[in-house]
Amino acid sequence: MTERHGSPSIEATGLVKRYPPDVLALDGLSLSVAPGSIFGLLGPNGAGKSTTVKILTTLARPDGGTARVAGHDVLRHPDRVRRAIGVVGQRSATDQGATGREHLALQGRLFGLSGAALRSRSEELLAAFDLADAADRLVSTWSGGMRRKLDVAMGLVHRPTSLFLDEPTTGLDPEARHELWREIAALSRDGVTVLLTTHYLEEAERLAARVAIVDHGRVVAEGTPDGLKAELRGDAVHVELRSPSDAPGAAAVIERLNGFGRPALDGGRLSARTDHAASSVPAILTALDGAGIAVAAVTVARPSLDDVYFSHTGRAYRPETAEVSR
Question: What is the DSSP letter of 132?
Fold first, then answer.
């Protein structure tokens, strides 16, 4: 069976995955990705993003639920799924002792390409990712950003309809990250469906047409970035304290003020929502000063994906917080 026009390119329903002895990595996760779109799977380390990718790319079996990619069931027809997808993992798959051109040639041969067709496709990708000048140098001499672009190029050698990118920009410097963002956006314009996992809020907002926020193995919110932010009323007030130890007391003070919800705590930083954020700043400063709590700075901001995460989980977004790698 081939993918039907208009049907989801990637679809998961009620995925469950357990790891011994008692880790529930996925707890009924569901998602649907439209053809030719970029879908962002957003959450901190350990939320279940990588486990989801492993199941959708046939590298792991779910303990419950179903998944289809390019119209094929991942359990019944894993070979068909593998031919239809490209996968770029969290860690680079490059060999330091081989050249960029050799990497693409090997990857192409694994998918049955050879001869002039393989050479043409390799040259096309080297040019598209601005790697042609370095193609015959050992990858050990390349920058981290160049190696990451080569990883993506390798995932595209066989012209997959869907590409899975598992935290592709982790560890890159800002310039290399923005370069790779441009390349990923171009893939969607060319009709490739991209499922991108990330713990960078800015990355999801910049690239994805739709995002799903994952927490403890479940999708807790899904929609367009603008749509999810629009669901939140008012603006956010962010308060930086001089002493992080004052945070619990400051949160209690702010929560007692009229019009404020429960503040989110992140070290010495508090964030709270209100319908009248700018005009509420003097009241916040007065109340905290009266409680003997010193403030370093106060800012007012429009809703962000960070605020969306907090509204659905009750916790500030901290990408690094995870007890188990999932």
Answer: G
